[in-house]
Amino acid sequence: DTEVTQTPKHLVMGMTNKKSLKCEQHMGHRAMYWYKQKAKKPPELMFVYSYEKLSINESVPSRFSPECPNSSLLNLHLHALQPEDSALYLCASSQADGGGYGYTFGSGTRLTVV
Amino acid sequence: DAKTTQPPSMDCAEGRAANLPCNHSTISGNEYVYWYRQIHSQGPQYIIHGLKNNETNEMASLIITEDRKSSTLILPHATLRDTAVYYCIVRVALASYDKVIFGPGTSLSVIP
To answer: What confidence tens digit (pLDDT) does each residue in B21-59 have?
Structure first.
């Protein structure tokens, strides 16, 4: 299995809702990442997990709450989002040994906040 | 990580080689050059990476200048499916995780 699977592919949520994005990989990668991408912009790094521990939080608002329950799964919990949070949310994984084959990205979850 | 500079857009005729340049004049000795591409509405895809030597794989070739201050990604026979945004990134591959920061990239249009 050489894929990163993200669910759902599309999500529409109200500003008072609580929802979660899920990311799964079975490549044995021990580093996992969340990126946010607005239209016509490059992906922006949000969070980095290494060996199930949060290593980087790029000053992301607390309405985004990441969770890594095991080495294969990464969640992003969403609460009280704003319309400007509408974006493509990308998950990625990589080997955690400094080795060289870069990230494997999922296809993303397209989030619309109404 | 060192910053990179890429042209915002390029065109290439179908079947011809696409040569995408990248400047990374402040690159350090232990920083690798990576290339990713992102086809519309999909996740970015790893293409190739290198440190000093030129590299080739089934997707592309990477030419790095001797002083390592610039590089060129070559798609030898561009097809319409190669239309995408191409990102050049430099990073240190020593940590237990990567911190990949994407710049604006080059939007490549392959024209029939």
So the answer is: 999 999 988 888 999 999 988 999 999 999 998 999 999
A99 touches chain B (CB under 8 A): yes
**Among A111, A94, A96, residue whose Cα is nearest residue A6:** A111
In chain A, residues with a C-beta closer than 8 Å to the C-beta of B49 are: 100-102
From the CA of A92, how many Å to the nearest CA of chain B? 9
Angle CA B60–B90–B15, to nearest 5? 20
Q: Which of B38, B85, B97 sits opposite A48 (nearest CB)?
A: B97
Residue pairs spanning A and B at CB distance below 8 A:
73
Q: At B87, is the pLDDT very low, low, confident or very high (cuts 50, 70, 90)?
A: very high
